[in-house]
């Protein structure tokens, strides 16, 4: 299969500073993913769980470096999944799954790329590219541990936009003419009061 190049051009306006994503794009526009390797993994089940609700959290970190001699960028993507029984008084996890993936990227040139830019690239593209491998590893491991199925959500660089809530209409108060007659309810019927 031939090489496929996907570029994303997003230039900040003259007075707008470059964002972390703009800096990371300087690397992502140049590289191709060469290989993904599982470097280490660990899974522990602390106790048997009941049939109640489950919750989990995922932590992720990256370490990135570049090798100008071989024109390669290396990203270590570290993931940890911690699972809990929802509604229990005990906040101890019942299972923890860890994995570290090495992503190797090849490029024609790293000229003009700094360590900071490579770190930002690792935190965005590195995690994004490793996420499907992490998801598959977790799903297989959960099944082998005999735990209820778990689907890892999609990875998003940005939080989804929240729908706008309509603002309540407030009636504007206007100056009115002299006071109108007031009414008083008496035994289910309305009686007008005289001035």
Report the CATH C-level class of the domain at 31-144.
Alpha Beta
* Strand residue content: 25-35%
Shape label: globular
**What is the helical fraction, as a range of percent?**
10-25%
Look at the helices and sheets and give the structural class: alpha+beta
What is the residue-averaged pLDDT?
77
* Rg, alpha carbons: 29 Å
What is the annotated CATH architecture of the domain at 31-144? Answer: Roll
- Give the N-to-C terminal Cα separation: 92 Å
SSE order in H/E notation?
HEEEEHEE
Main beta sheet strand tally, sense and closure: 4 strands, antiparallel
- Strands in their spatial order, largest beta sheet: 1-4-3-2
The CATH homologous superfamily name of the domain at 31-144 equals SecB-like
Number of helices: 2
Number of distinct beta strands: 6
Low-pLDDT stretches:
1-13, 180-191
Task: Find the CATH topology of the domain at 31-144.
Answer: Bacterial Protein-export protein SecB
Task: Give short descriptive properties of this protein.
four-stranded antiparallel sheet, 20% helix, alpha+beta, 195 residues, two-stranded antiparallel sheet, disordered N terminus, Bacterial Protein-export protein SecB
């Amino acid at each position: 299969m031939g090489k496929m190049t996907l570029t994303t051009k997003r230039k900040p306006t003259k007075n707008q500073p470059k964002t972390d994503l703009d800096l990371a794009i300087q690397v992502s526009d140049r590289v191709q993913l060469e290989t993904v390797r599982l470097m280490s993994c660990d899974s522990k089940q602390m106790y048997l769980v009941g049939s109640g609700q489950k919750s989990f959290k995922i932590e992720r970190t990256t370490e990135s470096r570049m090798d100008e001699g071989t024109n390669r960028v290396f990203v270590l993507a570290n993931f940890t999944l911690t699972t809990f029984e929802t509604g229990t008084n005990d906040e101890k996890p019942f299972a923890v799954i860890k994995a570290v993936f090495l992503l190797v990227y090849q490029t024609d040139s790293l000229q003009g790329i700094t360590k900071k830019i490579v770190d930002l690239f690792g935190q965005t593209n590195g995690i994004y590219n490793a996420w499907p491998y992490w998801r598959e590893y977790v799903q297989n491991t959960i099944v082998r541990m005999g735990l209820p199925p778990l689907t890892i959500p999609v990875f998003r660089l940005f939080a989804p936009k929240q729908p706008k809530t309509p603002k309540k209409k407030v009636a504007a108060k206007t100056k009115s003419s002299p006071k109108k007659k007031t009414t008083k309810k008496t035994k289910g019927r309305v009686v007008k009061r005289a001035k």
